[in-house]
């Protein structure tokens, strides 16, 4: 078993650190945020992720999982150092590499034994070379450091499951020995391994996320056409998805993709293509279609009120960018709520986990339950498909709103069932 240090305790770093400790490695996670480190030492996860708290507590108690703000302490015995810091979008669309560069310097200044550095963060093609150069230029001790690309494919809300049951682990290494060491690290997971060079591994990550984003934008545009032509996008997705060359996954039409990955990664890949004068218009089109998708939903609501929603009260069910997460980064709900407020509507919000949207607008009314949220409203908008909403007793709920108009932005509810209870329900890509 290996001594591992992980830099950064966001989704990727924390989940990977916890899972590596669960399969027997000794892991020290480093973060600059002291409050966060104290919290994790107590076995409390700073993010909402099903199953994470249990594994945190278990592995801390087995003395396999540690947290610190001190790089020297974390690197003292480590053979492998994982970089899992954020690569946010900068103004140009390119990934901002300041945290990656800092991590490389921290490694160079503090490692005291031969180390394999594993870059887990999503980084533009060529960044592993940059990390290697920064480390070599700043290295203090006389030790050997190899850099290996190992992008992450976990989904928020399913992060633990995805790490244990991934479709593949991509390892991009220039040194066979370093690549083998990373392969050994993950061997207990029994997940298929793809071995390649560093640039290809970096590209696998971006190309996979962009492909999934294209798939979502494609089905959303087909949905909009279905709506005009009287076809049912869910049946269409089932029908095309049964072709194993296409597959049914990521063909759920809705409000477009959000979150911390697809929006930023598609932008970063499009930026790389522009910079290298390569046509990647398919990804550019997916980005544009995604922006338009939530705008179309807002327009649909406004059209229901003959173009004027001023003074109307609207219930928003769900604000997280998808179910089972408290993440609202790039969530379609944010754009929809802003736009409804701008048009003069009053907005009531309920999400099972997210209790505050922060900056948006002090006039938003936060509710404690679905019934509270839909009481006396002119329309109800399902924006995040939390299971709790799907399982609601919609028959009992019909008495709460002023108008039983329900716009399902995620095609999560059954038109047939809800219509029987008296709901006037509208979905994406299906003529009601
Ligand atoms: C995504 C990828 O699925 C992961 O493989 C990847 O590791 C991760 O990004 C990352 O780069 O870190 P995540 O953003 O957590 O994971 O969430 P997804 O479950 O992929 O959903 C992304 C967005 O697409 C959500 O807004 C979701 O509502 C939307 N979506 C997904 C659809 O609109 N339709 C679908 O059929 C599927």
Automatic annotation (TrEMBL):
Chain residues that bind substrate:
153-156, 205, 250-254, 258, 322
Tell me a Gene Ontology molecular-function term this record carries. Answer: NAD binding
Q: In which pathway does it act?
A: Nucleotide-sugar biosynthesis; UDP-alpha-D-glucuronate biosynthesis; UDP-alpha-D-glucuronate from UDP-alpha-D-glucose: step 1/1
This enzyme's EC code(s)? 1.1.1.22
Against InterPro entries, the record matches this protein to: 6-PGluconate_DH-like_C_sf (IPR008927), NAD(P)-bd_dom_sf (IPR036291), UDP-Glc/GDP-Man (IPR017476), UDP-Glc/GDP-Man_DH_C (IPR014027), UDP-Glc/GDP-Man_DH_C_sf (IPR036220), UDP-Glc/GDP-Man_DH_dimer (IPR014026), UDP-Glc/GDP-Man_DH_N (IPR001732), UDPglc_DH_bac (IPR028357)
Q: Which domain of life is it from?
A: Bacteria
Catalytic reaction equation(s): UDP-alpha-D-glucose + 2 NAD(+) + H2O = UDP-alpha-D-glucuronate + 2 NADH + 3 H(+)
Q: Which residues form the active site?
A: 261
Which protein family is named in the record? Belongs to the UDP-glucose/GDP-mannose dehydrogenase family.
Keywords of this entry: NAD, Oxidoreductase
A biological process term (GO) from this entry:
UDP-glucuronate biosynthetic process
Q: Which residues bind NAD(+)?
A: 31, 36, 87, 122, 156, 264, 329
**Source species, please?**
Ureibacillus xyleni
Q: Which SUPFAM superfamilies match?
A: 6-phosphogluconate dehydrogenase C-terminal domain-like, NAD(P)-binding Rossmann-fold domains, UDP-glucose/GDP-mannose dehydrogenase C-terminal domain
Task: Domain (UDP-glucose/GDP-mannose dehydrogenase C-terminal): give its ranges.
Answer: 315-415
Does the record's keyword annotation contain NAD? yes
The name under which this protein is listed is: UDP-glucose 6-dehydrogenase
